[in-house]
């Protein structure tokens, strides 16, 4: 623990007042424990002090007890708490003194021990930090200079702590953003967990067999090894046979026990890199509807097999149960019954501590499977007669839906040799969309549906439309449609479906078009114009609430989408697009970290709140009432909104100058 003693520093700063000599002569021990506030000084200057290492043992305990009760430090173990206390410095500030100036990088966290601090934005006090409150983590983590100033509201003692990531053994336990559900204990946006561990840790040994080996022999070897599968190699491709194959084919008599094992094997076997995470393994299983993955090394050679039951308990059981029910559905009614399991699965995934981004990806994979199954069950002469591609839009396309997200779709079909089958194709698309509604999914209320002429076109019509938007971005809906097309992912016939995005590649755009897209992106503003609270709705159904989707997620998603368009690469999640922006020089590392951290935090908060609504039998919403959030979460959101607005302003001023010369 480092103490900055008051006497020496006041003298050094030239502020030694004769009438305060009694104060300056006080022994340092009288400042600890912190029940006592240093009285008296009226200087508005902040004073730098030397270090003192002779704090009493009781004072050290006082630090640990105090910080151990305050987020973000309340989840640290004893060893990390000792490390934290060892780095604490104490500073005194007179009323009006500046604690943290605006527009200067943060190097430390501040924790108010006694007194209060004001957060000042353009001369207005927008927040008041009181005993136990922490300031600066968003700016410390992002590396961006805060656009606000912090000053002492009254005489205050503050704890000054350098970046904890540099000395804590478990910095992921810092609970910077709390998420408090309607009932039960607080939940927090957690750091890396089991889902982020390497998949290879769970790999089981391989039972090998030849393609000509009899079924009975392979079954005997699998049983003797206590495993549930074997790998088959026929000299050209790798296959897999599982216990499920034996039950479905051998037990029913479709395959005899003396037949070659190749009659049972699935070729090629689904593989995954040994460096992949357990979360990536589960997602791959859900996407493909399998229960086994072959783990391969750097050379591509198999090193083991991972089973679904090896990954976890509830966080595997429910998504794979739903996926199996989807694949087994023989009609839309059975498919709808399977889809009713999805909300409960999302609740259980949250309860099991699965990361929000991982839950969103699993959710998207389940919806993918549902749409594909509907397309198989719904046979339409109009669609069957022509090559076509179903395309997902919006958050589902980015694989980051919320529980309440609509299913936004588009349709691309090959240019017909003669005639115009558009009306028949769109009518068939409407039947598919109705089946999705029967399965419990909401269609886009704003019209982004495959039967809408704006979103159901032939390939040449899509390309012509995209050219028109680029030539004249001021025409009606040009920027809106450009944004929606940039957030697209072909679900069937990807080569045809990419017609939606192929014209956003770099050689087809002008600087004026990119400037217009950027203007649209930065038009999504975080609610930073509040005084001691958020900008909220002033009337209507959501009076007194703030929309975290429109005000929190949308500004970040829009900037990431601009990067996708500017880079000519529309793939990936919001965070992946932001990282790509850094690699291309469109964002600095600090800016990307700020936006990515803000997205993860707000998305996690919204997902957990919507899950709590599902648990309580309520309709999920993107609106929150600020008073329902705990103090830590409100403060974290406010700082995040300011940080995002700062990045927006930077990109708005210099975004086009960051592009290669040929793009401007």
TrEMBL record:
Q: What keywords is this UniProt entry annotated with?
A: CBS domain
Q: Which InterPro entries match?
A: CBS_dom, CBS_dom_sf, cNMP-bd_dom, cNMP-bd_dom_sf, Diverse_CBS-Domain, DUF294_put_nucleoTrafse_sb-bd, GlnD_Uridyltrans_N, RmlC-like_jellyroll
Ranges for domain Cyclic nucleotide-binding:
72-161
- Entry-linked Pfam families: CBS, cNMP_binding, DUF294, DUF294_C
Task: Identify the residues that the record assigns to the CBS domain, covering every copy.
Answer: 202-257, 265-322
Query: What GO MF annotations does this protein's record show?
Result: [protein-PII] uridylyltransferase activity
Q: What is this protein called?
A: Cyclic nucleotide-binding protein
